[in-house]
User: Fold this.
Amino acid sequence: MAYNLLQGKNGIIFGALDEKSIAWRTALKCHEEGARLVLTNAPVALRMGEINKLAEAVNAPVIGADVTNMDDLKKLFEDAMKHFGGKIDFILHSIGMSLNVRKGKSYTELDYGFNQKTLDISAMSLHRVLRTAWDLDALNEWGSVVALTYIAAQRVFPHYSEMADAKALLESVTRSFGYHYAVKKKVRVNTVSQSPTRTTAGSGVKGFDGFITYAEKMSPLGNATSDDCAAYCVTLFSDLTRMVTMQNLFHDGGFSLMGVTEEVLNALEK
Assistant:
């Protein structure tokens, strides 16, 4: 059911790869709620993914951009504003990549060159996106930026490895840039800490199947799905959440506040 929460709003969605991705589901939901969109991803992801299928579904152009390249980001924002005929109201940052995780390196044996790339792509990319929008005055007042994160920024999940550090940095950028953007333009910047979700990227983490089962048992409401997350992001892009900024918002079925559930205790006592 649509509520027209984003009627008349313009948004950029970073990171849609395939139908499993949260960015993909969010784009569909934003379109359903009346938003006009621009889709973007890294050139290599555009070649590997299926984003043109999404673009057709939501009637949006696809503009490739390397989030480590300021010239690419500048062109993305300029082209988006030309397409919209005006400024931007919301941005979804759904970007994360770890070469160390991909190569199976443990946290105690990180390749520091890989680590630098992980932090650059997964966290500092948000700073670059916000800086580009700031420099170009690309966001409307009361605009909203949401970045996707994970509770490993606060708690230890051994196989999440260096991505935990990247998410901690991402959340710090959200707070620090969020202050400046709120003062300057009333723009809100928040992170959403989502349940473990069966995306193409998430499934690459060692032990993912066991972990997602554990999280389901530890969450009173169960794990939040990609579509659930998309709906939550829509509320954060809407005018209903104008006074929410610099927050890390847990969207995890209650997992983040649990010590242990009866279901987990019963399983351990068998």
Q: What stands out?
A: The first strand starts at residue 10 and ends at 14. The radius of gyration is 18 Å. The chain has ten helices and six strands. The CA atoms of residues 188 and 245 lie 5 Å apart.
